[in-house]
């Protein structure tokens, strides 16, 4: 996250210094770059939660069988993930989830 911003900031600083000769913008860009380095050290990064969800067996629709999806946007915990999948597939008659709920 911050590392990518530093790479782009260096490219921009090079443009300001060598091609545009805009030293005010160069100064602002270098201050921002320094802030990115400080953020790497000081800012606590949130730990993302990822869930790998695989659909195996004949109990699932054919378009999902033997598919694995990695999701990190919609579920805040494993319980929410399992509950969401339960409500999605039980109406379709999938027996796999009925073993867990």
Automatic annotation (TrEMBL):
Gene3D superfamilies: 1.25.40.410. The keyword Membrane applies. InterPro entries: DOCK (IPR026791), DOCK_C_lobe_A (IPR043161), DOCKER_dom (IPR027357), DOCKER_Lobe_A (IPR046769). It holds the Pfam family DHR-2_Lobe_A. Keywords: Guanine-nucleotide releasing factor, Membrane, Transmembrane, Transmembrane helix. The chain crosses the membrane at residues 74-98. Residues 1-101 form the DOCKER domain. PANTHER family: DEDICATOR OF CYTOKINESIS, DEDICATOR OF CYTOKINESIS PROTEIN 1. Belongs to the DOCK family. This is Dedicator of cytokinesis protein 1.
